[in-house]
């Protein structure tokens, strides 16, 4: 379900062509209705997704919170553009990271991923849906205008290369006392029951639930408990994602840490510096919440860390708060991607500092 918005509308357009494959699309009257429809589709047991840009993600925040409270799987794709407000609708930016991580009221954590390139979107959409289904949680996938309007050679994978997405809809009660909608497994994940399954009817909504039973529970102790459970469930995602990889030396003078559509420019800049004999390595983040579990160890192996991003330093802020290091920043907010020479010049300046 979606509402037209530059530069994300092409996703809705493309999916609308796939009716023969069982894909159902719905152009809603606004972003709020589109997000609410996605929550409803997830409750009905369907793989549900929506795509938008920054202004739309603002409007979707309340219904994303409903998805978090109800613990339902869905994918929210944000093709970032220049902001705030109408901003630069046709220009690229990476300024929605804070909103993806923190932009909902209450303690409302969701996994956040970021695609590195147009081809990488194919894999990361599948990865986002995998995490959503396995952990019964909304997932946000960040791309940007540079990726959305870009293209690159891409080999169509063989079906045998694709990871199967396992969906389980229980049809029998999960206890001697009947169906317990918030009875969790070892990873704190509740069962995903298809709407209308006989004998497994249960309450759902935005009010706080009691654990296991799923009944409305306003008690202070329960709210604290459920908040911590939802938070820990998202942190448990880290056990299912790969360790952070590094291009270049395992330790040294400088690590360039990037995310999103800056991948190509940063990779080329780092490789140029390496060919010139510089002690520099590159790590590109595709998992932004939670971070890969070895990221802190990777960062400590380098004397300095440089974070180029198309905003005022949002990832730098989060990295500083999480790992208590003080990275250098290279920030550009012009609606344009980085040029390779801009990153090379900053790498040289940081190495000389």
Characterize this entry briefly.
This protein is of the alpha/beta class and 353 residues long. It has two domains: 1-241, Thiamin diphosphate (ThDP)-binding fold, Pyr/PP domains (Rossmann fold, 3-Layer(aba) Sandwich); 252-352, Rossmann fold.
Number of helices: 11
SSE order: HHEHEHEHEHHEHEEHEHEH
Q: How does the overall form come out from the CA principal axes?
A: globular
The level-1 CATH class of the largest domain: Alpha Beta
Rg, nearest Å: 21 Å
Uncertain stretches of 5 or more adjacent residues: none
Task: Report what the structure shows.
It contains 11 helices and 9 strands. The chain has helices at residues 9-16, 31-43, 54-70, 97-102, 118-135, 145-148, 220-235, 263-275, 295-300, 314-323, 340-352, and strands spanning 49-52, 74-80, 112-114, 138-144, 252-259, 280-285, 287-289, 302-309, 328-331. The N and C termini lie far apart (50 Å). The radius of gyration is 21 Å and the shape is globular. It has a 5-stranded mixed β-sheet with strand order 1-2-4-3-7, sandwiched between helices. The model has no long low-confidence stretch (mean pLDDT 97). The protein has 2 domains: 1-241, 3-Layer(aba) Sandwich (Rossmann fold); 252-352, Rossmann fold. With 353 residues, the chain is of the alpha/beta class. β5, α8 and β6 (280-285) form a beta-alpha-beta unit.
Supply database-style keywords.
single chain, 353 residues, alpha/beta, Rossmann fold, 2 domains, 5-stranded mixed beta sheet, 11 helices, 9 strands, globular
């Amino acid at each position: 379900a979606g509402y037209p918005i530059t530069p994300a509308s092409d996703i809705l357009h493309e999916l609308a062509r796939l009716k023969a494959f069982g894909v159902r699309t719905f152009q809603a009257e606004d972003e709020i209705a589109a997000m609410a429809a996605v929550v409803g589709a997830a409750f009905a047991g369907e793989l549900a997704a929506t795509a938008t840009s920054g202004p739309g993600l603002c409007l979707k925040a309340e219904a994303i919170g409903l998805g978090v409270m109800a613990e339902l799987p869905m994918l929210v794709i944000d093709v970032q553009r220049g902001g705030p407000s109408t901003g630069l609708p046709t220009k690229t930016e990476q300024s929605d990271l804070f909103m993806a991580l923190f932009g909902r009221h209450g303690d409302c954590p969701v996994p956040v991923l970021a695609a590195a390139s147009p081809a990488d979107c194919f894999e990361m959409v599948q990865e986002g849906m995998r995490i959503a289904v396995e952990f019964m949680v909304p997932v946000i996938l960040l791309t940007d205008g540079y990726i959305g309007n870009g293209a690159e050679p891409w080999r169509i994978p063989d079906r045998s290369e694709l990871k199967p997405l396992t969906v389980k809809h229980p049809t029998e009660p999960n206890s001697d006392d009947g169906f317990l909608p918030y009875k969790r497994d070892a990873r704190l994940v509740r069962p995903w029951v298809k709407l209308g399954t006989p004998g497994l009817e249960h309450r759902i909504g935005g009010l706080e639930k009691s654990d296991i039973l799923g009944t409305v529970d306003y008690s202070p102790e329960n709210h604290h408990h459920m908040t911590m459970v939802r938070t820990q469930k998202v942190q448990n995602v880290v056990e299912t994602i790969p360790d952070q990889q590094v291009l270049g030396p395992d330790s040294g003078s400088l690590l360039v840490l990037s995310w999103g559509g800056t991948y190509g420019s940063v990779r080329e800049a780092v490789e140029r510096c390496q060919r010139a004999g510089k002690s520099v390595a590159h790590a590109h983040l595709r998992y932004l919440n939670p971070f890969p579990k070895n990221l802190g160890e990777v960062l400590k192996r380098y004397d300095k860390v440089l974070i180029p991003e198309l905003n005022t330093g949002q990832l730098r802020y989060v990295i500083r708060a999480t790992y208590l290091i003080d990275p250098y920043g290279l920030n550009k907010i012009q609606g344009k991607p980085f040029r390779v020479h801009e990153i090379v010049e900053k790498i040289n300046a940081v190495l000389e500092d």
